[in-house]
Amino acid sequence: MAYESGGIISATDYNNLLNDTNKFNTTWSTGNGDAGYGQTAVTTKTAGDIVSATEWASLINKLNITRTHQTGSGTGVVAVVTGDIVEYQIGVANGVDLAYTNRLTFNAQGSTTTDSGTTHNINDSSTAAQQHTFTRTATFASADQARYFFNNGGELNLALTAGSNTGGTGRGASLLNLVTATGGFQDFRATTNGGRTGTGETETTNDLTIGYYDLTTSNQVMIRIDEDNAAYTPYPTDYVRILVKSNGVQGANADKGTILTFSIELNSGDQSATGFNDGININFTSALNVTYPETASGLSNTWGTVTIG
Predict the structure, then answer these.
(1) For the chain, which residues make up each domain, given as ranges?
(2) Do 34 and 213 contact (CB within 8 A), yes or no?
(3) Helix (H/G/I), strand (E/B), else coil: 87
(4) pLDDT per residue over 121-161, tens digit each?
(5) Cα–Cα distance, 79 to 101 (Å, whole number)
């Protein structure tokens, strides 16, 4: 019998809820690309078999976990108990569809691992134009674990902190001002990021549309902040950029890579014609912090631990 009001659920009805296009296992289990939480797939039934109350209850419970993760509350459907007749419940069918539609939403997140920070030094006396690039990486144990991290609501955050202007030059001060103005980025997630965290100077690029599933093996500019009033030159030629790329597709389920590389690029203009002839001797710190998905809803950790380098 077809899955309809007043009907008993057949094996075909049950299987269609699980494995039909973009149904429950797509969201709950391995899935593909930005669909898939990495949980153990719900097993389908052989045609003609009876769907037991225990099996139906297990599906409802998993669906309620999914919707609680996404919205903070379940479907409202109460799991049947042994002896109950397994029959049509509109909340299950609707809940399965909503679970897929809202697969990248989350009501809460888990713990944050705070990076102890890496200190970066520039000590260059050249008056020519200078570009200094420092990288931070986030590495996942497998392609699917990277997918599950972002699909379940994990995020990365980069914090930049200006250090000392050891050389005492205006050129060094300009770059440190730009580091502070850039601030880093927040909420790098599956398909978006929260942009720069600093303020001031001239914001040339602050691209909020770049997330994990937008990555390629080529650098993309997330943030560029330009000097708007350099004290040592009439031309605002200094700027800081944050760029991101990955090591490319590594698995079979449409991941975007297992190693994410964030480049912090400090650029200082040519001093040869300004009369200042300043070198640069500064340091600053970067911290790449990880906020993990939550497990309080009942989800299992399928994403592992992110290694920060």
Answers:
(1) 11-101, 109-308
(2) yes
(3) strand
(4) 999 999 889 999 999 999 999 999 999 999 999 999 999 99
(5) 23
Is the separation of the CB atoms in 248 and 260 below 8 Å?
no
Question: Rounded to whole angstroms, how far apart are CA atoms 74 and 153?
Answer: 18
Nearest to 234 by CA among 202, 275, 175, 203: 275
- Residue closest to 246 by CA, chosen among 282, 217, 268: 217
Distance of alpha carbon 250 from alpha carbon 230, whole angstroms: 44
Closest CA to 306 of 297, 195, 293, 118: 293
Contact 285, 267 (CB under 8 A): no
Contacts of 135 (CB under 8 A, 6+ apart): 261, 262, 263, 264
The token pair at 262 is 């964030």
Rounded CA-CA distance 219/135 in Å is 12
Q: Identify the three-state secondary structure at position 36.
A: coil
Q: Residue 285 pairs with which residues in a beta bridge? A: 119, 161
**Stated pTM of the model:** 0.94
Cα distance between residue 208 and residue 244, in whole Å: 13
Asked if 201 and 181 count as a contact pair (C-beta separation under 8 A), the reply is: yes
Residue pair 295/151 in contact by the 8 Å Cβ criterion = no
Cα–Cα distance for residue pair 174/240, rounded to 1 Å: 10
Residue 41 CA neighbour count, 13 Å, CB half: 13
pLDDT tens-digit series, residues 19-72: 999 999 999 999 999 999 999 999 999 988 888 888 988 999 999 999 999 999
**CA pair distance 195, 206, nearest whole angstrom:** 6
